[in-house]
Specification:
This protein is an alpha+beta fold. About 40% of the residues lie in helices and about 15% in strands.
Length: about 170
């Protein structure tokens, strides 16, 4: 007969108890990990609340408002949204003018994915709100306007600069 020792113990009952506790703890950790991963992949009630709250604050914003004011109105409604359900802002230069696009979560139609339809872009030119929505921020429009700017000599072709001429 071979003697087994776990923590200096050779009695079979304490060994079984230790193994049982270890297995139970392992199962519990697996269940917790599964729950966390499932919750992390789906929009939460917090995200839904933020989307609903956005609808009440959006009316406080108008074209021509300062970027600082607009973001101060929008930020509280977006603050609680988990990072995986946000879209980072973008920046570029258009004829020497700084353009920033901030994306606000305004829908949950895609579920766990972050598709463009779930966001509303807020476009700032020189820190002034010039557009809200996707009409102004169409990728096709950006490419067409970039080609137009390059052909007009306003932008060198080797630079990654898109924008509108106004």
């Amino acid at each position: 007969m071979i003697t087994l020792e776990i923590r200096g113990c050779t009695d079979i009952t304490p060994m079984h108890q230790w193994i049982r506790r270890h297995c139970d703890l392992t199962r519990l950790m697996a269940v917790i990990a599964a729950c966390v991963s499932i919750v992390g992949c789906a929009p939460t009630a917090v995200t839904q609340l933020a989307v609903t709250e956005y609808q009440t604050v959006a009316s406080q914003i108008s074209i021509g408002d300062a970027k600082e004011y607009v973001l101060s109105v929008l930020h509280p409604s977006q603050q609680a949204i988990p990072a995986q359900f946000k879209k980072p802002s973008e920046q570029y230069l258009s004829y020497g003018e700084q353009v920033e696009i901030h994306f606000v979560r305004t829908a949950l139609t895609s579920g766990a994915k972050n598709v463009d339809d779930d966001f509303t872009p807020y476009v700032f030119k020189n820190d002034v709100l010039v557009s809200v929505g996707w009409t102004y921020v169409s990728k096709t429009d950006f490419l067409d306007k970039a080609k137009e700017a390059i052909s007009a000599g306003g932008v060198k072709q080797d630079r990654n600069v898109f924008g509108v001429r106004r």
